[in-house]
Automatic annotation (TrEMBL):
Protein name: Tubulin polyglutamylase TTLL6
Gene3D superfamilies per UniProt: ATP-grasp fold, B domain
Keyword Transcription regulation: no
Organism per entry: Meganyctiphanes norvegica
Keyword annotations: Membrane, Transmembrane, Transmembrane helix
Lineage, highest ranks first: Eukaryota, Metazoa, Ecdysozoa, Arthropoda, Crustacea
Amino acid sequence: MGVNSLLGGNSGVFKSQTATSPMSNRQFRFMVMVSGVLVFGALLTALNVYELHKLTQQHWTKMHDPGEADAEGRGANHYAKPIAWIKGKRMESGYLKHVVNVFMRLGYEVTHNENENWDVLWAHNYPFNELKSTMQKLKPYQRVNHFPGSGYISNKVSLAVSGLPYIPRAFRMPAEKDALLKFSKVNPNMMFVQKSNNHRGIKIEKLDDLDLGTEGSFVQEFVHNPLLIDGYKFDIGVYTIITSIQPLRVYVFMGDVLFRFCPEKYHPFDPEIRDKYVVGDDYLPTWKVPSLTPFYTKFGSGMKSSFDAWLKSQGKSGCQHCVWDSVGDAIRTVFYAKESLFIQSGKSYPKTHNFFEMYRFDFVIDDQLRVHLMEANMSPNLSSQHFKENRLLYEQVVFNYLSLVGVGTAVHTGTVEPQSKDEEDMVVSVTDIAVFPNHCLKNCNASSACEQTQCQLCIPCLSSDTLVDLKLAYREHLARRACKRVVPQAINPDHAHTPSNMDSITPENTLMTEWFRGKCLTDSSFCN
């Protein structure tokens, strides 16, 4: 009975549970469904975390594994830093330290050894002999800091005897010995110096004491009346950048100019004391010239602005513009004179868009504020080991230089190669380079009109090469920072509606000059 009672009791309990089971089953099924959803969500979250982790690992792997390519076939350079190959002798001496610093600040990986994936080559020496095969197989995006034929400007003998304006009269030895002797008889009080390409051992000598039979040298008129500041003679170095040869585009860095003073006062003059008239490695810097010291050290002026302020203090407030305008004209004259030689040298290479170059043009100013071009230096000194204060000048020069030529870009990728046409158009598009819209609509609508010179800048008439040149010119203009264009020449906004006389320049230079005039009409910043 106890058992029955127990069974009966359990049975009662069972019946009671069974009676409420429909509600319990629905609750159970709901709980199971909710639990399933939660479990699925957790699994999905875990999968997403795993995939994100995997992608992150792949990204970093690509950055460090140059052999691996992504799903679109792009290798490590799509993710890694662009590569600057800086090539020179005795790199351990640090003479290119400031170049390295600027490249690294711009996000480059710097190497001193050849790497097939390099983006920019900065070669201290002329690279077209040692690396000729590499230079002839450049990828479209690779850039090199020299132009073929750049020695036609930096060769001291060739430039001195060119007979160009602003260059003191010079005679090539021994070929022009008789002309020199005749010239000296007409100018008996003139002093001369003999120079060669190594530019060492310069000294004023009597003509009878010069070796007029020395091959590879020249004898040049000495500028006997230099402008003096506190009694010191000086020269100025203007950093000059060429970005294109056909058409020609040349800029000068006007953020500052290198001033170097002779360590001894010019008067009383003695040709036996070279430190009175020759600027050497141990020159007197701007900050040690008494009249310039307060401008430079106290009021934050650079070398150029200190000089301009000194001129103003001497009652010559408008004269600095004459000096710098003459400097620009002298540089422009040299490049126009040597342009055809650059073009001929460039024919050995598929494209010249890969190349750019910086020179330092050295001038002397006389006491009438006339400028005299002495030489142009390829791969100018950029080391501040001798004068630590020059660090700022050199790094600003390099930064502005790389910015101008598009190597120091604001669009950061793992290479200087554009990643897409959309990226290119974002930076500069056809709408940015369009000029003379009214003229084009009225006179250049027919397809046959493109044969007319005045229609060749209209968008439907642009050749592919001209389109590339104009886009590069536009980008240079936006990126020029403290650089000033000297070729094409500045345009007077008041005269921009009328084409200037361009009979003496090439058709390519004519088109580029006209394009700047067209842009000048709508944006005055393009005028100069």
